[in-house]
Fold this protein.
Amino acid sequence: MADWTPKVVALDIDGTLLAWVDGQTEDYETIPPAVYDAVHRALDAGAHVVLSSGRSPHGMTRIADLLDVPREGTDRLWIVASNGAVVFRYPPMEVVHEETFDAAPAVAAVLEHHPNALVAVEERGVGGYRVNRVFPEGEISGEQIITEVDDIVGEPVSRVIIRDPEATAQDFVDLGARLGLHGTDYVVGWTAWLDLSPVGVSKASGLAHVCEALGLDASDVLAIGDGRNDIEMLRWAGRGVAMGQAVEEVKAAADHVTESVHDDGAAVEMSRWFPPAGG
């Protein structure tokens, strides 16, 4: 890939741009200077930077603001949210693509095995979540509205979060395999966390929608991520790069493994293609 330069840089947020600290709150979200500078060098070179996360849209706009993107006088940012179920432009926020599904059967199947699990669905268009019980501070963004599970999944949704403080991540990996659930499971901090999303929807499908709009394709994309919800994206992209602290399953899906988030691994990888002046 000596003569290749990414035209799209797709960046996961938690564990890639931000180092997750157990119990952290929004106030502690900071972009390391090396990552910030690398993002802006990519923009200077004409690349499209696309944030791609399992977060809800409203949990991603403030990260764009911390990165100071889009820059004044440039096109609005493309953002892939909710693990690919929502694609939007910013600012202002304009949803341009959304996938929904009936999550009730899958949620019922998981709760049969994990009856004490927390369930959350994003309040589409307004931010915040409908939850059956309050999630620990810092784990989801915005207001949490206590709602019965039947009402939470009573209409089509783009994504469901199920989190069980009494389970492990491996418990959810095994459960998903046994139940044949379509969804993506990954770890945030020390918690067991399962995302359920529409069939065929992933960060890769969301990025494919963005690339189509830009007249580009997967071969033009550098994607960097650390979680199991990044696996499809890393396999799909022309160059998929796993963060150094990722689990082996994620690393195996990648073309390359960079440094950990604590060593600015995303900046290390971006600097390979967009080096500092004199570098």
Summary: Residues 186-190 have pLDDT under 50 and may be disordered. The longest helix spans residues 33-44.
